[in-house]
Design a protein that fits this description.
Blueprint lengths: L3 E6 L5 E5 H7 L12 H10 L1 E4 L6 E7 L9 E12 L5 E13 L3
Antiparallel strand pairs: 1-2, 3-4, 4-5, 5-6
């Protein structure tokens, strides 16, 4: 099991977590290193941003929110979350909602 960096509750009451492995992937030089200074924006996007379900994968949601302090011409933070289930110790399903990736994007 990957170490959780943090868990946060979104505006809809769902608990979503970020692992150290996913965080390192996001801020890797070949991915989105510009997000290293914007971790609090990622949390805020989950708590107060807009959420849209993916049409091809109903377990995938895209959270987004605009900010005026992002680098270059970027206007939004986008966070991709998978909503899944795992089993608890008694074999019952329990929510397992985690961040897959996050990035900045220019919108509009």
């Amino acid at each position: 099991m990957f170490n959780r960096r943090w868990t946060i509750q979104d505006r809809y009451g769902y608990h979503i977590y970020l692992t150290e492995e996913r965080w390192n992937h996001i801020i890797e030089d070949i991915n989105h290193p510009e997000l290293a200074d914007y971790e609090e924006h990622i949390k805020d996007t989950l708590q107060t941003g807009r959420r849209k379900q993916d049409t091809l994968n109903p377990q995938k949601y895209r959270y987004s929110k605009s900010y005026d302090d992002l680098v270059e011409y970027n206007t939004h933070i986008v966070v991709i979350v998978l909503f899944r289930f795992s089993e608890d110790e008694q074999g019952r399903p329990e929510p397992n909602n985690y961040i897959v990736t996050a990035y900045m994007k220019e919108v509009g």
